[in-house]
Predict the structure.
Amino acid sequence: MTRIFDILFSFFGLLLLSPIILFLLIIGLFDTGSPLFKQERVGVNQKPFNLYKFRSMYLNTQAVATHLVQVSAITKWGSFLRKSKLDELPQLFNVLMGDMSFVGPRPNLFNQLELIGERGKRGVYSFRPGITGLAQIKKIDMSTPQLLAETDAKMINHLNVLYYFKYIFLTVFGKGFGDRVSK
């Protein structure tokens, strides 16, 4: 049932937000010369997919979990994008294509072996990854793999249409946040 909402919301979101997306692309060109960021992530059933975001870090930043990245790797424009959550807008393409859902466990990198193990034990990868979810609402990031996997499993086991909208609503109105960056 939530897949229907994913398709409708991502399609109309892309349509309505296309002027903002275009504007952010142009500003991103001036910031780093490459406004879109594409990275291979772990998807449903541990199959790889390319996650899209607006670039918030310098071009040669190492591909590690966000909590391992230094603040100095983030551009000033990127800091604004992250705080406003606008860096997530290109993920609407991922949702429309079926790689992601609006609600689900945040997709991790393939080099996050401890998290992959913890999520694998709990069946988290049987579910489509999402832009937001219970872990983001509770401010749990990828720096605590076991707690994150437990929270993801709890969300998946109880997810229904009501919780789907609740997590989206709470995220839009400021409750959720992305992974922490090292100071």
